## 1
Amino acid sequence: MTATYEAQRAALAEVVAIPVTPFAEDGSVDRDTHRALLRRLLDGGVKTLTPNGNTGEFYALTPEERQLVTELTLEEAGVRASVLVGVGHDVPTAVACARHARAHGAQMVMIHQPVHPYVSDAGWVDYHRAVAEAVPELGVVPYLRNPLLPGARLAELADHCPNVVGVKYAVPDAARFAAFARDAGLERFVWVAGLAEPYAPSYFSAGATGFTSGLVNVAPSVSLHMIEALRSGDYQAAMKVWEQIRRFEELRAANSSANNVTVVKEALASLGLCRRDVRAPSKPLPEDERAEVAAIAAGWSL
């Protein structure tokens, strides 16, 4: 029987939470706090978790820490949520991480945008194909940030690898997304708005059915309210949420997203949920900017 990956596809048409990775005072991953933050997401109604995403500081974690974060997430999620594990770096590393995720019960892997400065269209297909073919049982989700990649290349990848079931599209151009999705096959994939709540309404209008979120770490109900509004076609209600989260997301996006993770961890710290520590090349907010983040977090209905 040919696999249909229906459960994986359904899990992508959700608020796809990207959990933070909290650190202890000695700089190590704070396991107990990490578990507590995951339980808070699950209790808040989140159904899809992405360990080792960029909000989880994927590129600042050691290989052993990435495995730890994967295992902790799968243990806490159990049957309550689907887990989409971020993998990347060189092909052997990405394949090994995908196989580790499979061995510990993950349903899907998200392949991070290749960081190599020289990426050809055909090489992009080869890179993703190598990972997808190594774990045919898992749903595979490319993380797309390249505005130059044509939709036909994604279709080519899926021709080789039917387990490529969704796309995290993170190019900040709604018109480009609409064209790319139709060139690749609008109904063929689950389209996830990869730039979170600020872009979700415009991307949903063009065919997305899920969106990623770092803000959800702070206020799960806010993110879930937005997707409920979008599912029902109530764009006025969705934009009310957009207005509510606008400043928070502007702070995260400033200076080429320099404080993307920092702002989320600062908000969590203001609520007493974890330390504000981030790893280089990120840096904690200066004292004079912390109050604004705390005020925003306190103002949300948590």
Note: Residues 235-257 form the longest helix (23 residues).
## 2
Amino acid sequence: MDSRSHTHVTAALRLCLHALLAGLLALVVVRAVSEGAPDTAAVVVVTLLTAGLYAAGAMRSSSVQPKESAQPKDSAEPKDSARPRTSVQPGTRAGAWWLGGLWVLWAALLVLSPDALWVAFPLYFLQLHFLPMRWALPAVVVTAAAAITSFVVHRQEIEPGAFIGPLIGAAVAVATVLGYDALFRESERRRELIVELVATRADLAEAERTAGTLAERERLAREIHDTLAQGLSSIQLLLRAAERSLPENAPATPHVRAAREAAQANLAEARSFVRALTPPDLEHGSLAAALERLCARTTAPELTVRFAVSGTPVELPTPYEVALLRTAQSALANTVRHAEARRAEITLSFMDTSVALDVVDDGRGFDPSGAPVHERGTGGDGGFGLPAMRARAGSLGGALSVESAPGQGTAVALTLPLPDTEAERAA
């Protein structure tokens, strides 16, 4: 029996099958003895041989089941091995000889006693459980035909019941086994689905924790940059201006210089905190390198993603790099998940007063004015959609535009003004 079907229900069914076969064999012996048939001794001997062979096979099967239960769950099995088996091991030569021996002994009982035809019913289940379905059905038909033939030979008459009884029994056995087979497969599918859902829930929880951590890191980086770093940078510039305006030997000059150096040191510490809290893709290289790695990761057999830089690259503040990288990730995630595109291109353009990011694909496109933004607004980077992209652009004084039409692809463009004040450059 397949190790996966060792349940209380199948154990009860096996016991019922054992009891049914034992009871029917006992009925054959009792009828032969009570009626004083001339072949009583032969009937008793053949019946005992049949019972002994069946019991030997049942005990042998029980003794090897623990070895099968240790088989890995993902091991290759024949298609029919998922069906619950009864007392013999499927797919073995010993099992085939065992079932064949039972059938031969039963056929001998059919010749000796008409009551042996009732043993055909447990034989149906044995054949259906033990053999692959392409062999089990012909075996059931042969067994039913043998039972009908025995009845006709012994009774010397043809009655409808002689045909209806064995055929109905065979039909019930086939329907029972097929129904159990269907229920078993459905149970396995549900079990696998539950396992997959549990694994997916764990992955989702981990992804949410990671997204929350990254979002908090970015928020802290923005806060430190916009408050502490900017304030320290302004203090440093003011102290430098004050130091220049003081006479060289003024008593306050050393104190102003010390204050400026302290502000400069703390500004360096603040910048190191900001760098440590930036997205991992920006930790090891420039924005252009991070975008190039993003394109390489996204490129697949069905989608080619290219990256290009236009203009002369300049050093950008961390919030600018984060906004540009997150916008590229979100727009490219939309392309992968919704656009069904074959090609996409990311272009980072440095101009005199601004920096622009363009993400263009040749996908199916959509109607930006008619479709809700959330239909194209969920990316694979933790939920940064069109509203989040626009919010990022607005927080830095930039603008986000989306151009698309059904069947004409999509173009997402983010434009940010370059910082031009001395304080912003120093930050």
Note: The longest strand covers residues 343-350.
## 3
Amino acid sequence: MNIHELISGISDGRFDDQFRRLYGASERAVLKARARYLSAAEKFSVMCPECDEIHVYSAPGRTEIGGNHTDHQHGCVLAAAVSLDIIAVVSFHDEGVVRVRSEGYMADEIDLSSLEVNAAEKGTSAALIRGIAAKFAEMGVKIGGFDAYMTSEVVSGSGLSSSAAFEILTATIINEQYNQGKASAAELARIGRFAENAYFGKACGLMDQTVCAEGGAVFIDFAEPDAPKMSSLHFDFDKAGYSVCITDTRGSHADLSADYDAVAAEMKSVAEAMGGEYLRECDEERFYAELPALRQQCTDRALLRAAHFFAENSRAAQESEALTDGDTERFFELVGQSGTSSAELLQNLYSAGDPQVQPVTLAIMLSKRFLRGAGAVRVHGGGFAGTIQAFVPNYLTTDYATEMERIFGAGCCYVLTVRPVGGCELRLD
């Protein structure tokens, strides 16, 4: 389609069914999507006024539902793609260059004739694009190039994995146009992780990319981290009467690397004391039986964090089973247990280096006070600062968001639906 067909198609409602699938069935969600895509189309037309043919793509952010700090020990995670996403209006060409303008950021231009790691690009979106292109080239895919205008609702630092959404969006664009869509969701996830590890310069696992590429609610077993086993869950929180609410407490993530690193390092120290490399390899009953000896080699906090892993790893599987059975009461009970374990054992609600600052703990306390036993609430993602997750009855959602924003600021509470698809191309009906 051309840009005029895209604009008229949005205005005429010919994308509405796709919008409902990606953003929820409400009329408000559809109208918001129409306005957003029209704005992107108009800004792309300014960026590339001579373009004849265009394509439109989307990739979602993700929320971790169960399995807090389990994946780095080869454990199990329950996660879901969400209705916040990154979209791109794209035109393809044979110039051997990728030009991307993301709303609110400086434009990137990547020359595809040079796909080696560029040290000057470390930590930038250009590094991710170059790394993804390099991996496709290694697979034998010939990439021409493209111009893209992107806009994102997956706010950086919101705990919804904006980087993985960007990676999967870029990988989907290349895969659909230059690889005939041959790469599976699992392959796209590995490509995204490769770019983040080798080119962006950040160590990460596969969870974020896997969920953003796969879509829906997914139970992932990382016993084999390079080839995780995935099971899709068909559960609709909205139809069950609940909204998934993520509140960004807007605590600073600065100087928290040591806190995040300590969780993995301390869990690993226990595994090594038990003769393994990761806790997934270790027996839980043996762990408790050998606690006196383990205390001679490991700190008490490391042992508490290991205890969290054993229980949380099992709990993620139980949460998956509860949702599969449609047992929300059992699911919320397990979410509550997970939140308690994160607070008492994992100890990732605030930084031990600055105990006076506890926005996550405060948000959880306020949520429990507001919900009065309905739904459930827990820390979301890595913790120490950042976000909480609450499952809120639909009839309370508006008031809950208002209360969170009264405390933590306007726009801090995201009311989400689970998105059934990962990275995709939108087509004119």
Note: The mean pLDDT is 95.
